[in-house]
Design brief:
- The complex is a heterotetramer, with 2 copies of chain A (79 residues), 1 copy of chain B (748 residues) and 1 copy of chain C (240 residues).
- Chain A has 79 residues and is of the alpha+beta class.
- Chain A has one domain (2-78): 2-Layer Sandwich (Mth169, Chain: A).
- Chain A has 2 helices and 3 strands, in the order βαβαβ.
- Chain A has helices at 16-27, 51-66, and strands at 2-9, 33-46, 72-78.
- The radius of gyration of chain A is 16 Å and the shape is elongated.
- With 748 residues, chain B is of the alpha+beta class.
- Chain B contains 26 helices and 28 strands.
- Chain B has a 7-stranded mixed β-sheet.
- In chain B, strand 4 (122-132), helix 8 and strand 5 (162-169) form a beta-alpha-beta unit.
- The N and C termini of chain B lie far apart (63 Å).
- With 240 residues, chain C is α/β, with parallel strands linked by helices.
- Chain C has one domain (2-227): 3-Layer(aba) Sandwich (Rossmann fold), CATH 3.40.50.
- Chain C contains 5 helices and 11 strands.
- The chains are: A alpha+beta (79), B alpha+beta (748), C alpha/beta (240).
- Chains in contact: A-C, A-D, B-C, B-D, C-D.
- Strand 2 (33-46) of chain A pairs antiparallel with strand 2 of chain D, so a sheet runs across the interface.
- The complex binds adenosine-5'-diphosphate and magnesium ion.
- Magnesium ion (MG) is lined by residues 439, 481, 630, 632 of chain B.
Chain lengths: 79, 748, 240, 79
């Protein structure tokens, strides 16, 4: 089973990377681009066939390691 | 082993000539198979075999009382006393950096670091020499930002400070940037490790990262010119992992502290092929490897791919038989992949097996040492005379000295490089006494009272105009930078970046440059202990300027007796050592103000140079000097301005008077006469110092005083009343110089 | 004084911290491997700078799971002195020993340079050799030093005098221009409520010797020493 | 219109970050996690109502700035 995980900064938290990209886009002439937000995208293969167990595992991975829940949200899908 | 039908197309793809192929047939006594052909192709590439340069490099002086290891090993080593050696080398990563600037530069740093710590030295300093096109080009800005970030990304993570370097911007490098990296480490003199596969029966151990398909044929690519097809070579990009390299470094040094190691070599260009055959060839032994034991990242890799992969962060070592477990446990401690992949044999051959079946068998010496050597034809280019012809009388003298000075300080080649070095951790390891921003970086050597001074230099335009003089000047200027820190030069490494050696004019440049290096090193009594040659730096038939980059190491016996380039205190007296002549040819002034890159570079008299440097070192060691700065790009006016504005703790003005002595104004202010150094000394010592300098037979003059909030140069004997002096507010001067690069990048 | 310096895979200021405590200040230093689980006989522990685990994922995120961290937490809970410098600070944040997180510098670039910090609280075991409000020149070298925490936490650490250093000008003015990385409130260093765990982004070990032309950072180490009634044993010359 | 962009490393390109995370997951007891790959996830708001124009723009943004096409692939959706 494979987990597809998205980790993003919480709403309201300043995103220096997003801001820098927005600025760069602007100077490249993409002046209509706004509110750029940058997050992480992870793929993890799981040697696990039981969906519920996989789900629980990925949730724990995110909570413990993959996201810093003070400032980040996460969501995932299992495929 | 399967035989192979070798077609001209296959040879072409492997960059082997018909003649070279016939030589391979002679060596093997049969047709090579695919893997063997690949191995020959990589090892006989220009990059690995130095086939066009070797006969010339032989002329370089490589010996001296301090030399512990000269060229031929992973790096050179020079005795610095106290039982220690400085181990150093410079490498190019030009082509990979053009294809992918971040990873290209990063893996360049990774490669040179491995060269140093394979010798048993802990790396303590990195420097870099960069060449880019003009910053008006968006692509150049992208390359610059990527390269600097890549160097930073790798060096910072490794915890090796990047303490200096140089950057020149010139359109000639627009499609062929240069990225040369220098690294220096410290080793115990009696604990230098070499890349040799000694002791028949000893295990050959692989450790570091797993092998993937990255960079297959990087070595042949480095010997390739660029054209529009370059994009198609992209899959060969290697990705660096500095974190793994840091573990590799610590694991190596831990292994070396014990006594289980016999020989060790990193896998750089040509990967496992070069490390295996070079280690065997140096020792006259052979190695037998079982490729199925090589840790791999991807399934289905063929012997060809395994042998030619240039995956980063890998090492090959020969350990004492029976000590395998010790090695394995240290590698495991550092979370590294490790595997015994073979044994040392007495056959003189590199034998490769896959599941016990022989898949390649080649004499090690043939791969490592018996590449053809070429004495390629050389002839001066037709345009050489035109380049050198410069009629000074046709150039109007400078009318607005203030404007000209500001324009020069605004030229990215001369402007402050703070934007670059602020991205480099230049202080980690707490040795950096003089940070980037002065003529030379200075690092104390822990456990001793000594310090080392480091500098890299080369003026490619001088080398274009006169390869012999240009190369001499590169050595002289590098040494002069060290002298300005009070350091005596003790060793040189070089990185010779040239165009396509199959062009006679490029060979001509190369041969003359090597002559120049030789003569300058001999005159200054400094040996070349390591180096690198990067040829085929041409794009769409346009070669770069010949750029023999020099890295030099200097020794300061008492660390505290060093000075920096910036003025220290109001009231100090400014002295100029050396003679100013009408040297306008090849200057930055001529390029920036007159848009010409022409003329003869300044002449360099090596005896005069030696005298000026020796005198400066002596005065600094005697504690008589407050600051010392050499005159280079931009001439005396720029050097003086830098003395005023380059200090980290604010600016200090100066009032300077220069006698015109019949010279043109622009020559006096911006000419680049060699062998000149600006000193500042305490007023009460000025007379005595001046006498000492003159006693040493060095021309010198008192030219001004430090102090005030303006930078002023008055020209004595000038008849005009307007525009004949420099008179600028320090903030104006500083802003122009400090903001030039960020401004060009649109980041201010 | 017995100092432990923790070595994580990728730590690269471990030797520098050991050098300052041992060679410069004459204290006894023990290197602690990140897999060690027993910490004994130590008065203070240093989490050094560097790139633990390559700074991959987030700075400090992987290191905080190192086996040594449990023992370190126990050590801190019992009141042991812990100082985290740069990456060490980031690890303390990820481990929850100090509140907040580090975001990328607003410039996105790694920045290495001298900065000035103002001592906001000189009544701590890490700063009592400084004057309150004293300005120290100490270098920074990081890409992720942009301190952030939620307003409630921020209010709390300010009210509790847990903000120890703030970026300022040479004259001691805390201004946006003096903020090198975008840190909330110019915060450069904070302490826990019990006053025994300090995290700071600037590197005092890089400014603790005259041969490096700057000794301001030494005040922090001297403060730690005198918190234990010790003083430096020998001031060594250059290099030695 | 909003663009949701994924930038991932090309197949076969070393992913040091993924490797380190995999190792960390392993030592946290998630020993059945494998082949961790890390990419970037971006959200960009576009002041543009024409879908075709937006599409062309996002493609150019990716090519020019957001992805390093030498080592990275990208894909995007418009919502
Ligand atoms: N690429 C670079 N990396 C680090 N430091 C650099 C780089 N380029 C220039 N510097 C630093 O900027 C200062 C000025 O460089 P440069 O003008 O080339 O000096 P010089 O002419 O004395 O050789 C030096 O201290 C040098 O080390
Ligand atoms: Mg110089």
């Amino acid at each position: 089973m494979k987990a597809i995980i998205h980790v993003t900064l919480k709403q309201g938290i300043l995103d220096p990377q997003g801001k820098a990209i927005e600025h760069a886009l602007d100077s490249l002439g993409f002046s209509n681009a706004a509110n750029v937000r940058v997050g992480k995208y992870l793929e993890v293969e799981l040697n696990e066939t039981d969906r519920a167990r996989a789900d629980a595992q990925v949730k724990r991975m995110c909570e413990q390691l993959l996201a810093n829940t003070v400032v980040e949200d996460y969501r995932y899908e299992l495929t | 082993m399967k035989a192979l039908v070798i077609t001209p197309a296959i040879l072409e793809q492997h960059k082997l000539s018909e003649e070279e192929y016939r030589k391979i047939l002679g060596i093997l006594g049969r047709e090579p198979n695919w893997t063997e052909l690949g191995m020959f192709s990589a090892m006989w590439s220009e990059h690995c075999s130095y086939k066009s340069s070797r006969i010339h490099l032989k002329k370089l002086p490589t010996t001296g009382p301090r030399v512990v290891q000269g060229p031929g090993e992973n790096a050179g080593a020079v005795d610095i006393g106290d039982g220690l050696c400085a181990v150093f080398k410079m490498e190019s990563h030009n082509h990979p950096s053009f294809i992918e600037p971040y990873q290209g530069a990063a893996t360049g740093v990774g490669g040179i670091l491995r060269d140093i710590f394979t010798m048993g030295a802990r790396p303590i300093a990195l420097l870099n020499s960069l060449r880019f096109g003009g910053l008006e080009s968006a692509h150049t800005r992208h390359l610059l930002q990527g390269v600097v970030a890549g160097i930073a990304g790798y060096g910072n993570c490794m915890g090796v400070p990047t303490v200096g370097g140089e950057i020149v911007f010139n359109d000639i490098y627009a499609s062929n940037p240069l990225v040369n990296v220098f690294c220096l480490g410290i080793a115990k003199k009696d604990k230098i490790f070499l890349g040799k596969a000694a002791g028949v029966g000893n295990p050959v151990i692989y450790f570091g990262s797993k092998t993937g398909r990255d960079g297959i044929h990087g070595a042949t690519m480095a010997s390739d010119s660029f054209d529009e097809q370059a994009a198609q070579k992209r899959p060969t990009v290697q990705v660096g992992d500095p974190f793994t390299e840091k573990l590799l470094l610590e694991a190596c040094l831990e292994l070396m502290a014990g006594d289980c190691l016999v020989g060790i070599q990193d896998m750089g260009a040509a990967g496992l092929t070069s490390s295996a055959c070079e280690m065997a060839s140096r020792e006259g032994t052979g190695v037998e490897l079982e490729l199925t034991n090589v840790p791999r990242r991807e399934p289905g890799m063929t012997p060809y791919e395994i042998m030619l992969s240039e995956s980063q962060e890998r090492m090959l070592m020969v350990a004492k038989a029976g000590r395998e477990e010790e090695v394995i446990s240290v590698c495991r401690k550092w979370d590294l992949d490790v595997a015994v992949i073979g044994r040392v044999t007495d056959t003189g051959k590199v034998v490769l097996k896959e599941n016990g079946e022989v898949v390649a068998e080649v004499p090690a010496k043939a791969l490592a040492d018996e590449a053809p050597r070429y004495d390629r034809p050389s002839a001066p280019p037709a345009y050489q005379e035109m380049l050198q012809a410069l009629n000074h009388d046709a150039l109007p003298d400078v009318k607005d000295a203030n404007g000209a000075l500001l324009a020069l300080l605004d030229s990215p080649t001369i402007a402050s490089k703070r934007w670059v070095y602020e991205q480099y951790d230049h202080m980690v390891r707490t040795n950096t006494m003089v940070r980037p921003g002065s003529d030379a970086a200075v690092l104390r050597v822990k456990g001793t009272n000594k310090a080392l001074a480091l500098s890299v230099d080369c003026n490619g335009r001088y080398c274009l105009l006169n390869p012999y003089e240009g190369a001499k000047i590169a050595i002289a200027e590098c040494a002069r930078n060290l002298a300005c820190a009070g350091a005596e030069p003790i060793g040189v490494t070089d990185c010779l970046n040239f165009g396509n050696p199959q062009r006679p004019e490029v060979m001509w440049q190369f041969v003359l440059a090597v002559e120049g290096l030789k003569d300058a090193c001999e005159a200054l009594h400094v040996p070349i202990v390591s180096g690198n040659v990067s040829l085929y730096n041409e794009t769409n038939d346009l070669s770069i300027y010949p750029t023999p980059m020099i890295g030099m190491v200097g020794l300061i016996e008492e660390a505290e007796r060093t000075v920096t380039q910036w003025f220290q205190r109001a009231g100090d007296v400014i002295l100029l050592l050396g003679k100013t002549r009408e040297d306008l040819g090849g200057t930055e002034y001529l390029k920036v103000l007159h848009h010409r890159e022409q003329g003869s570079p300044p002449l360099l008299n090596l005896q005069d140079e030696q005298a000026v440097q020796a005198c400066t070192i002596r005065l600094i060691r005697a504690g008589l000097v407050q600051s010392a700065h050499d005159c280079s790009d931009g001439g005396l006016a720029v050097a003086l301005a830098e003395c005023c504005i380059s200090g980290p703790d604010g600016h200090v003005g100066a009032m300077v008077q220069l006698p015109l002595n019949g010279l043109r104004q622009d020559a006096l202010l911006f000419g680049e006469s060699q062998s000149r150094i600006v000193l500042s000394v305490k007023p009460e010592q000025a007379e005595a110092v001046l006498n000492q300098i003159r006693d040493a037979g060095v021309p010198a003059a008192k030219i001004g005083t430090v102090g005030g909030s303006r930078f002023v140069i008055r020209l004595e004997g000038d008849q005009r009343t307007e525009g004949c002096t420099v008179d600028l507010d320090l903030n104006v001067l500083h802003d122009r110089w400090a903001s030039a690069i960020p401004r060009a990048l649109g980041q201010n | 004084m017995n100092i432990g310096v923790v070595v994580f895979p990728g730590s690269n200021c471990d030797h520098d911290c050991a050098y300052v405590f041992n060679d410069v200040l004459g204290q006894s230093v023990q290197m602690i491997w990140h897999k060690d689980t027993q910490l004994s006989g130590l008065d203070a522990i240093v989490l050094p700078g560097g790139f633990s685990y390559g700074d991959y994922l987030r700075t400090g995120a992987i290191a905080r799971f190192s086996p040594v961290m449990r023992a370190l937490k126990a050590f801190a809970d019992k009141g042991g002195l812990v100082i985290g410098i740069c990456n060490g600070f980031q690890i303390l944040l990820e481990a929850g020993l100090l509140p907040g997180v580090m975001l990328r510098n607003t410039s996105l670039n790694f920045i290495c340079k001298d900065v000035y910090v103002k001592v906001e609280n000189a009544a701590t075991r890490f700063t009592h050799r400084c004057e309150s409000g004293q300005v120290l020149k100490i270098p920074i070298a990081h890409a992720d030093g942009n301190y952030y925490t939620d307003p409630v936490t921020l209010g709390g650490i300010k009210a509790n005098a847990q903000v120890i250093f703030r970026y300022c000008t040479a004259e001691g003015n805390v201004t946006p221009a003096a903020n090198p990385n975008g840190s909330l409130d110019n915060i450069a260093g904070i302490m826990n409520a019990d006053g025994n765990v300090l995290g700071m982004m600037p590197h005092p070990e890089r400014s603790a010797e005259s041969v490096l032309s700057n000794e301001d950072g030494r005040l922090i180490f001297l403060s730690m020493l005198s918190a234990f009634g010790k003083s430096e044993i020998r001031a060594r010359p250059v290099g030695a």
